[in-house]
């Protein structure tokens, strides 16, 4: 598996992780047990989603610039 397919798989897994963390955050807020770390827990997968998503977004343009 090459790097691009590997990044796509990681991006997909991160989106699932982010969704689960957001759902847990909503449950904690409804139960009024929300703490700071529950809210900040969503930032890790979100930041990684940003990095992998930007990479996947730039891939077609980089291929065009590279002359492929």
Overview of the molecule:
With 68 residues, the protein is mainly α. The chain has one domain. Helix content is 82%, strand content 0%. Helix 1 packs antiparallel against helix 3. The radius of gyration is 16 Å and the shape is elongated.
Broad structural category:
mainly alpha
Q: What proportion strand?
A: under 5%
Distance between the termini: 20 Å
Which series of helices and strands comes N to C? HHH
Question: Rounded to an integer, what's the Rg over CA atoms?
Answer: 16 Å
Shape: elongated
**Integer tally of domains:** 1
Number of strand segments: 0
Q: Stretches where pLDDT falls below 50 for ≥5 residues? A: none
Number of helices: 3
Overall mean confidence score, pLDDT: 88
The helix fraction, in percent, is over 70%
Question: What does the largest sheet look like?
Answer: none
Key structural traits:
0% strand, 68 residues, mainly alpha
Short characterization:
The chain is mostly helical and 68 residues long.
SSE layout and pairing:
Layout: H1 3-30, H2 36-40, H3 43-65
Helix pairs in contact: 1-3
């Amino acid at each position: 598996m090459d790097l691009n397919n590997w990044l796509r798989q990681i991006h997909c897994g991160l989106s699932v992780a982010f969704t689960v963390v957001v759902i847990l955050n909503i449950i904690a807020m409804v139960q009024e047990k929300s703490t700071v770390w529950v809210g900040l827990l969503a930032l890790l997968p979100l930041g990684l989603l940003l990095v992998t998503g930007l990479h996947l977004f730039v891939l077609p343009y980089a291929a065009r610039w590279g002359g492929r």
